[in-house]
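Reminder to self: tokens first, then the designed residues, so the page reads top to bottom the way the pipeline ran.
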């Protein structure tokens, strides 16, 4: 007997490609939802978006980007004032420190330019691989990996595409099975579907375009493979 997490198609590769094809048909305009006009703004927005909604980030950066327009503005800012300026953002105290520290590093080590390598980006305070991937993809058109946010993490497990649990492990598991030309878009397609249909607590399986491919579907299965927990009756 195949394990419960196994997708209905013969291989994970076929399962993944069919999911991507159907989601492209459903979300042909899928793309990043953060607002930014340059690489510094992109870096700031992505750093603020950790464990916070893009909608809230966009509301905050609308005013933030008017006040802080250069690395020097962040580097020279009073951290308490900066924290207050992003006060509606989750963990705003820590993120204010990250922004100030990263701006100082950008000035001192990168001539005031947001770096363009994974190693240099992840050396910035508060920047992990997920954030760095977004900066490279949308700031430099460099696709070196797959951004694994909470939607990608949840849907990839629900759909039987991966059994891994940690974002870093999920990314490494996805890279060989997601076509390289889809690495960037896999994230945006799953984010779109995760927001619209496959929500964390109450997915709308009846309206889902990949329901028949999903080994977690509430219509046919008892367990949410994303969490490993039974669906509520």
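Designed residues (233 positions):
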């Amino acid at each position: 007997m195949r394990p419960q997490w196994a997708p209905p198609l013969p291989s994970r590769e076929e399962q993944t490609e069919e999911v991507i094809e159907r989601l492209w048909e459903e979300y042909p305009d899928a793309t990043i939802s953060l607002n930014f006009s340059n690489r510094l703004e992109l870096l700031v927005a992505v750093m603020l978006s950790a464990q916070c909604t893009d909608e809230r980030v966009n509301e905050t950066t609308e005013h933030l980007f008017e006040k802080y327009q250069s690395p020097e503005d962040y580097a020279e800012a009073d951290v308490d004032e900066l924290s207050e300026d992003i006060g509606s953002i989750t963990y705003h105290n820590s993120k204010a420190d990250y922004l100030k520290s990263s701006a100082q590093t950008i000035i001192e080590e990168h001539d005031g330019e947001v770096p363009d390598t994974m190693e240099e980006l992840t050396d910035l305070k508060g920047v992990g691989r997920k954030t760095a991937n977004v900066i490279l993809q949308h700031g430099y058109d460099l696709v070196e990996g797959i951004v694994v946010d909470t939607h990608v993490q949840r849907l990839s497990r629900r759909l039987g595409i991966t059994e891994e649990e940690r974002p870093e492990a999920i990314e490494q598991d996805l890279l060989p099975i997601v076509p390289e030309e889809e690495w960037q878009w896999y994230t945006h397609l799953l984010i779109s579907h995760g927001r619209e249909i496959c929500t964390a607590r109450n997915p709308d399986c009846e309206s889902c375009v990949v329901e028949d491919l999903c080994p977690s579907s509430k219509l046919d299965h008892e367990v949410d493979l994303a969490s490993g927990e039974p669906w509520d009756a």
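Residues 12-30+147-224 form a domain with the Endonuclease Iii, domain 2 fold (CATH 1.10.1670.10).
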